[in-house]
Amino acid sequence: MKTSVTQTILLFILSVLAVSCSTQGPSSKPEYVIVIHGGAGNASNRDINEEKQKEYKEKLNEALAIGENILKNGGTCIEAIEKTINYLEDCPLFNAGKGAVFTHDGRNELDASVMQGWDLNAGAVAGVGDVKNPISLAIEVMLNSEHVLLSGSGASQFAEEQELEIVDSSYFFTEKRWESLQNMLKSEKHGTVGCVVLDKYGNLAAGTSTGGRTNKKYGRIGDSPIIGAGNYANNNTCAVSATGHGEFFIRYAVAHDISTLMEYKGMSLKEASNLVINTKLAEVGGLGGIIAVDKDGNVAMPFNTNMMFRAYAKSTGEKEVAIFK
Ligand code: ASP
After folding, report:
1. Which of 52, 124, 260, 277 is the most exposed place for a label (fewest CB within 10 A)?
2. Ligand 1 atom at minimum distance from 243 CA
3. At how many degrees (to 10) do helices 50-72 and 77-90 cross?
């Protein structure tokens, strides 16, 4: 009799322990996660004064809220990426869409890409001068064409066929970017936007949109529309969006490198992204940073510059909006 009471108590303790262990695992993974960036650079606290910092943070917050709302209500990662990036593209503060920088010849040539992690499908556009929201065009390329990357006038023709909003090239004229071309101010070389998401369905996706580099020449294309360089997503590992000196991000296949370090070397997201940004790239002078989320909802936002406009939110209520280190 005594033994059976002890056994019952023991069994009860063991089952309580088992339940609490099994609930700790799944419940520690957030239902959804969204991470965004608005570019990285070497601007200092003086270049971006407190008032400006407040303005940037407000915009990042609003963009984050748009994506979070979609995810909370069961929307997909692609829907969240499109609407969040559309907001940042329409905001003249960032070097994407409306706020795109000027080329050497005084034009605006926009690049964007998107990738979904469950089937490795991707879409991208490069050197587009008349499409209001390049990320939406990249999504159309992914979903409604047999190609991955369209450029220039062909991309615009495809945008018209998909009934996306076409604007006169003067739409992208902003006094600030024009002045920055004239002055080639260091602090104006950043501002690409990006968004990576883990949605309620366990899917990962990444999107990036940019005006490229101020004063770019010869139809130069950076890393942002290059799958594996400035953008990558794989449900087995993570989703990554990059910002920085694109030539380095292409040569070091940055976004894909982070994913493969996780896949083949078993590194955590934090280890892999730190190695690539703060060691591999930093050693060769490749300035910039990335935002990433892995399949378990972990977030990483390393950068080797002074600052990166960045923010994230998780279904658990965890949230951060930051600029400097
Ligand atoms: N990576 C972009 C490019 O090289 C620019 C940036 O992120 O600031 O085109």
Report:
1. 52
2. 7
3. 150
Vertex 141: Cα angle to 136 and 146 (nearest 5): 165
Handedness of CA 13, 16, 17, 18 (dihedral sign): positive
pTM above 0.85, yes or no: yes
Contacts of 318 (CB under 8 A, 6+ apart): 30, 312
Q: Looking at 74-192, which runs of residues are DSSP E strands?
A: 110-116, 122-128, 149-151
Burial class (CB in 10 A: 0-12, 13-18, 19+), 273: buried
**Atom of ligand 1 lying closest to residue 216 CA:** 9
Closest CA to 324 of 310, 316, 312, 314: 310
User: Is the CB of 246 within 6 Å of ligand 1?
Assistant: yes
Q: Name the residues annotated as catalytic.
A: 192
> Is the CB of residue 186 less than 8 Å from the CB of residue 245?
no
C-alpha Rg value of the chain to the nearest Å:
21
Q: How are beta strands 307-314 and 33-41 bridged, if at all?
A: antiparallel
Closest CA to 258 of 243, 270, 247, 250: 270
In contact, 208 and 176? CB cutoff 8 Å = no
Q: pLDDT 10s per residue in the chain (325 long)?
A: 445 555 655 555 545 444 443 444 445 899 999 999 999 999 988 889 999 999 999 999 999 999 999 999 999 999 999 999 999 999 999 999 999 999 999 999 999 999 999 999 999 999 999 999 999 999 999 999 999 999 999 999 999 999 999 999 899 988 888 787 767 545 445 689 999 999 999 999 999 999 999 999 999 999 999 999 999 999 999 999 999 999 999 999 999 999 999 999 999 999 999 999 999 999 999 999 999 999 999 999 999 999 999 999 999 999 999 999 9
> 39 CB under 6 A from ligand 1?
yes
